[in-house]
Amino acid sequence: MPEQGDWYARGMYMEGHWQYNYHVKHFGSPSEYGYKDICHNWVIDKWNPEELMNLYVEMGARYFMAMGVHHDNFDCWNSAYQPWNSVKVGPKVDIVGTWEKIARQHGLRFGIGFHNSPPEPGASL
Known about the structure:
Strand 1 (63-69), helix 5 (95-105) and strand 2 (109-114) form a beta-alpha-beta unit. Helices cover 31% and strands 10% of the residues. Strands 1-2 form a two-stranded parallel ribbon. The protein is elongated. The protein is built from 5 helices and 2 strands; from the N terminus they run H-H-H-H-E-H-E. It is an alpha+beta fold.
């Protein structure tokens, strides 16, 4: 949500960026309706992890990695690290925990991907 490409949480604040323009058109100014507001709108009503895992196994998967957190710093589990997570905000579901349970039931190795590493000092974003 809002399904407008990677790094939306960044681009929506960059005046003149296409993601900023999209955000203003659909949600208003990011200073008034920002990323933390959008997170509350996220629903996963069509997500069927069991069906997806069956497909992955049928295709020969031997391990599964879930996205723990992307560059937006929104944790996809019941994180004690911070309140912006999928259990407390948005879908109200432990996405990583759900994937782990189903992957292990299918005998797959399980991993978690984290893409929120802080940039190196002096690095440009």
